[in-house]
Amino acid sequence: MAVIGVAIAVPEPYGTQLREQRESFGDRQAQSFPTHITLVPPTRVADGDGDLVFVEDHLTAVADRNQAFSVRLRGTGTFRPVSPVVFVAVAAGISECELLASDIRTGPLALRLPFPYHPHVTVAHDVDERGLDRAFDTLATYECEFGVEDFGLYVHDGEQGWGRRRGFALGAVRT
């Protein structure tokens, strides 16, 4: 079995800014994967090349029927006390992320999530309460905006962490 995830990478310079902040809060996972908005959380799939090609074909079809959009990240939120997570909130582009994630989680990636889908960028996870509070306060006024023109399929390697296997370009915005 392979462990995959599907996500929107936060582009530079914002991805590095948020990753460095995440490290400063004591999050040991900060370097394990690029800064992102999750569309499909870590999921086990059969790991034969044919199986991943089937997933890639599905993601290509999804990308073709969804349009590029803009995202604005602004301020912080938390999943505490349910989960020790602080995140930068998606303030614009929420519905587009929700629709894209829902479309992706069909066919070979159909899965039931343990919690309702909530697009966000994690900036502190499994750190002590002080680190969570610092993350929440430090990034409370953080804001950036960027275009989302693609999403990626990521595969977890036990030694190297998460790596992008392939990107999928979203359809052009129709005028």
CATH class of the domain at 2-71 and 93-119 and 145-169: Alpha Beta
CATH-level-2 architecture of the domain at 2-71 and 93-119 and 145-169:
Alpha-Beta Complex
Number of strands: 8
Shape: globular
Kindly state the mean pLDDT as a whole number?
93
* CATH-assigned fold name of the domain at 2-71 and 93-119 and 145-169: Cyclic Phosphodiesterase, Chain: A
Radius of gyration: 16 Å
Protein structure class: alpha+beta
Parts with pLDDT < 50 across at least 5 consecutive residues: none
Please count the helical segments. 4
CATH superfamily of the domain at 2-71 and 93-119 and 145-169: Cyclic phosphodiesterase
Labels describing this entry:
8 strands, alpha+beta, globular, 4 helices, four-stranded antiparallel sheet, Cyclic Phosphodiesterase, Chain: A, single chain, 175 residues
Protein described:
- With 175 residues, this protein is of the alpha+beta class.
- It has a domain of 122 residues: Cyclic Phosphodiesterase, Chain: A, CATH 3.90.1140.10.
- Helix content is 28%, strand content 37%.
- The protein has four helices and eight strands.
- The strands form two sheets. It has a four-stranded antiparallel sheet, covered by helices on one side.
- A hairpin with a 6-residue loop joins β3 and β4.
- The longest helix is centred in the first third of the chain and has 17 residues.
- The termini are far apart.
- The model has no long low-confidence stretch (mean pLDDT 93).
